[in-house]
Every structure is written in C-alpha cells, then in structure tokens.
Amino acid sequence: SSCPALPEGFDFTDPDVNARRVPLPEFALLRRSAPVSWIPQPHGLAGFDDDGYWAVTRHADVKEASTRPEDFSSARNTSVIRFHPGMRRERIDAQRLMMLNMDPPEHTRVRRIVQRGFTPRAVRALESALRERAGRIVAAAREHGSGDFVTDIACELPLQAIAELIGVPQHDRAKIFDWSNRMIAYDDPELALTEETGSRSAMELIAYAMDLAAARAAHPARDIVSRLVAAEDEGSLGSDEFGFFVLMLAVAGNETTRNAISHGMHAFLTHPEQWELYKRERPATTAEEIVRWATPVISFQRTATHDTELGGTAIREGRRVGLFYASANHDPEVFDAPEAFDITRDPNPHLGFGGGGPHFCLGRSLAALEIDLIFAAVADTLPGIRLAGAPRRLRSAWLNGIKELRVSYE
Ligand code: HEM
After folding, report:
1. Which SUPFAM superfamilies does the protein's record reference (predicted)?
2. Which atom of ligand 1 sits closest to the CA of residue 101?
3. Rounded to whole angstroms, how far apart are CA atoms 342 and 290?
4. 12 alpha carbon to ligand 1 midpoint, in Å?
5. Would you say residue 235 has pLDDT above 80?
6. Coil, helix or strand at residue 409
7. Interhelix angle 255-270/364-381, nearest 10 degrees
8. Do residues 328 and 65 touch, judged by C-beta distance below 8 A?
9. Angle, to 10 degrees, between the axis of helix 272-281 and the axis of helix 255-270?
10. pLDDT in tens, 135-181
11. Residue 302 pairs with which residues in a beta bridge?
C-alpha cells in the first residue's frame, strides 16, 4: 500500500531531497491522507536488507511510538535511517554500543548512570564558563567584518560545551574537535573524506575518552567523568562504555546544536521583526521555538519487535519505522500557525528533542542553554548582523543542516 499521492520514488531519507529543503509539503500531504505510510526503497540500502520503511508523520503517532520501546526497538537497527554506503561493519557495531541504539533494560542502566552528568545543577555549573566562551566566539567573529556564521560562530560552542562537561583539558581540545569534525564530515561528499578517515577518527576519540576514564577511575576528581566511572552503589560505566558515551556525545550533542544555532540565525535574519523582538525582550521561550523551527534531527528510526499497529496501521515484525520529528513539529493539530517562526510560542510541545520516551534527548537543557547564550551574545555584540547570501544546505539522510551561512557582522 504505497502512497499514491507522493511523487514516484519519493523518499524522505534521500539526501538529495533534504539538500534542497525539508520536505514539509510532502509531510503535510501524508499527515492528511496517510499518516503512517509505507515508503518503498526498492534498491535496498547498505546495512539493511529490507525494501522500505513506514513513515510516521503525525505528532501524536511519533509520540506514541517513542513511548512504546517494547514494540518499537532502538536496538534492532541503529537509530539513524540510512547508513553511508560502504560503511564498515565495525562502525555499525560501534553504533550499537551507544545508548541511542539500546533497548531497556541495558538502556535503562546506562541512562541512569549518565543522567548524573545532566542534572539541572550540572548544567547550571557550566553556565558561566559557556557564557564567557560565547562572548569570546562572537567577539572574534566581529573582528572579521563578515564571514560564514557556521564556522565562525555556530560550530564552536557545542564542542566547547561537551569538552567542558566531560572535563577535557584545554590543550587536548583541538584534537578532539578535529576528530569530531572529521566524523561528521565523512558523510559529506564534497570533502571527499573516506570511510577510513571517519572510522579512524571515531576510534581515536574513543581511545582518548577511555584513557580519560581510566585516569579518573584511578584518581577520582570532583568532575563528571569521575562520577560516571568511579565505582558507586548504583553502578558505573566501564572505561569502554565511557568511550562510546563520549563518541555519542560528539555526534548527538555537536552537529545537532550547531544546526539549531545556524537555523536560528537564519530564521532571525529572514524574520527581522522576530530579531527586533528578541533584542528587546529576550523571551525565555526562544530556544524551544528555534529547535521546533529548525528540527535539526529530521528523523530517527525504530524497528517493530513483533506484528503490531500504530495509528491504526498494521506494522509487521522487523519493519523499520521512521519517526519524522520535522513533520510532527509542523502538525496543525498541535501548533497554531506551525509555519510561523514565533519566539513567544507557548506552550510549545515540539518533538525536536524526541517523542518523550526513554531516549528523550539527554542534552536538551544543555542545548537550550547554548542556544540562549549564543543569541544573547550575538544580540549584544552584533545587533546589526545581516544576511549576505543564500544558505548552503547539508546533504544528509536525517539531519536538517546548514553548511554555510554568509553574513555581514557590521
Ligand atoms: C537523543 C535531538 C542536543 C545528547 C536525542 C534524540 C533527539 C535529539 C531527537 C533522540 C530522542 C529519541 O529517540 O526519543 C537533539 C537536538 C539537539 C540535541 C535537536 C540540539 C538542538 C544534544 C546535546 C547533547 C545531547 C547538547 C549532549 C551534550 C543526547 C543523548 C541522546 C540524545 C546522549 C541519547 C539519549 C538516549 O538514548 O537515552 N537528541 N539533541 N543532545 N541526545 Fe540530543
């Protein structure tokens, strides 16, 4: 039962589709006509031996699937919809060791431990260091007069936040930033990085993090790593587990936040009345609307663990189910004028951080803090920032990314 309303061969996870625009009109079509729709992928995909997936497009259904991990597994297939062709087996296996790709009870155990690093108190403890960073990043950009907002401003703070969080010493940061960026970039054909480079960077990052964990396990300090790896009653992470946790942070917390910041800037520059409002009032609702508007993670996927149903549609065991957060965040059943960028939107029950189940974004308050700090610094230091060209979009199966955003800082 493929959906006749979509153009023949249309696939929401096609990087060429997402490189042009997030397919909002196509999502709207499905939300109205067939909210859980079979999308054929007749040629198969590297890493999957099936021939399509179910696209879930309504807010209510995305939420429901997210909260039924016993029916919709994160472990059967990794969460990311489309592997890079030629992706190596080791890399797919490495993905499985990240909590994003685990089910309860393994997931529950790891989540309970790492949660300690993300309590409101732990996030607040990073605030003053990150505010200072944000100020410095923006001040340095101003010196250039004009440039690319993505590389000048959006890239840096998310990496600094993760480094701060796990206590990476200053002199090691350039190294871990380089590995993180290479892992991300290997997906990008323009950079022509090979699978080899991507895997090697991931392995080097894991090895670095394992060393960090081993050092803290031997000599605990008063930092997060020590609290995660030092033996405690509730259990702790092994240094290998910690390595994969850091790998996941470098992926989950880095490019997502970078794209939220870049899209947020682009939204402000194309909605000048919102930028004026922001500079005047700095509404506390701003960061959540930026995440809804941008929806940096277009989708993650699950796999049906047995024959089941979702939103009245029967789903066979083993079938992949794509949870389209980007579609949920434009569902008119939930959002008034979903097409409007409105930084005072309240309430804003968006699913940009996931549908609220066990995998609900661990870093959401950190991400919101980073967004707040960057835009506060931009508003203070670069109030007249202007667009100087059309953004260049990322080619990706699942990320809504901006690669380049030319601006004038004066
Ligand atoms: C999970 C989005 C920032 C760490 C997720 C999920 C989404 C998401 C959609 C999956 C939720 C699900 O499957 O139900 C985002 C967005 C961000 C962001 C849009 C930025 C605007 C961050 C940051 C960190 C982080 C800054 C940490 C430094 C994680 C982790 C998970 C996760 C560890 C996996 C949690 C689990 O499996 O239990 N995020 N994220 N994220 N995110 Fe974020």
Report:
1. Cytochrome P450
2. 37
3. 9
4. 21
5. no
6. coil
7. 40
8. no
9. 110
10. 999 999 999 999 999 999 999 999 999 999 988 988 999 998 888 88
11. 321
Cβ 325 vs Cβ 295: under 8 Å: yes
- 214: CB partners within 8 A, 6+ apart: 239
Q: Which of 38, 7, 3, 36 is nearest to 23 (CA)?
A: 7
The secondary structure of 232-287 as a DSSP string is -TT----HHHHHHHHHHHHHHTTHHHHHHHHHHHHHHHH-HHHHHHHHHH--TTHH
Q: What CA–CA distances, in Å, run from 395 to 256, 293, 368, 399?
A: 14, 19, 25, 8
Complex confidence, ipTM: 0.99
pLDDT tens digits, 54-88: 999 999 999 999 999 999 999 876 655 444 555 56
List b or e across 181-194, with b for residues whose CB sees 16 or more CB atoms inside 10 angstroms: bbbbbbbeeeeebe
Token duo for residue 90:
């080791």
By C-alpha distance, which of 229, 176, 185, 245 is closest to 204? 176
| CB-based pocket (< 6 A), ligand 1 | 66, 99-100, 111, 162, 248-249, 252-253, 256-257, 260, 291, 296-297, 300, 325, 352-355, 357, 359-363, 366-367
Instruction: Locate 316 and state its tokens.
Output: 């066979």
> Helix axis angle, 239-252 relative to 195-218, nearest 10°?
130
3-state helix, strand, coil in the chain (%, to 5): 50, 10, 35
Tokens of 69: 């991990």
Give 383's contacts (C-beta < 8 A, 6+ positions apart).
Answer: 279
User: 118 CA to middle of ligand 1, Å?
Assistant: 12
Residue 211 and residue 239: Cα distance in Å, rounded?
A: 8
Q: What is the largest CA-CA distance in the chain?
A: 62
Amino acid at 345: R
Adjacency order of strands within the sheet including 146-148: 146-148, 406-408, 386-387
Task: Provide the token pair at 11.
Answer: 């696939």
Q: Token pair for residue 19? A: 């490189």
3-state secondary structure of 133: helix
pTM (predicted TM-score): 0.94
Nearest Cα to 321, choosing from 64, 28, 33? Answer: 64
**Cα Rg, the chain, nearest whole Å:** 21
Tokens of 125: 């403890």
The CA distances from residue 113 to 16, 119, 318, in Å, are 39, 11, 30
Ligand 1 atom with the smallest distance to the CA of 260 is: 21
| CA distance readout (Å), 14 to 44, 148, 410 | 12, 26, 38
